[in-house]
Amino acid sequence: MHATLLEHLLRIDRHGERMQLGRAGLFQFRRETRVLRAPFFAPCLIVVLAGHKQVHLGDTHVACRPGQWIAVGAGQEISFTNVPDPQLGFFAGLTVVGDTGWMKRFARQYAAQLPATLSGDLVFTPDAVCWKTLSDYVEQVLLPQRTPLDETLVEHRWQTLWLALARQGVARDLVLAEPDSWRERVVRLIDFDPAADWRMGDVAGRLAVSEATLRRRLAEEDASFAGLLADVRMGRALILVMQTRQSVQQIALACGYTSPSRFTDAFRARFGLTPTALRENGSQALMPA
Question: Which InterPro entries does this entry report, sorted A to Z (predicted)?
Answer without folding.
Answer: Homeodomain-like_sf, HTH_AraC, HTH_AraC-typ_CS, RmlC_Cupin_sf, Tscrpt_reg_AraC-type_HTH
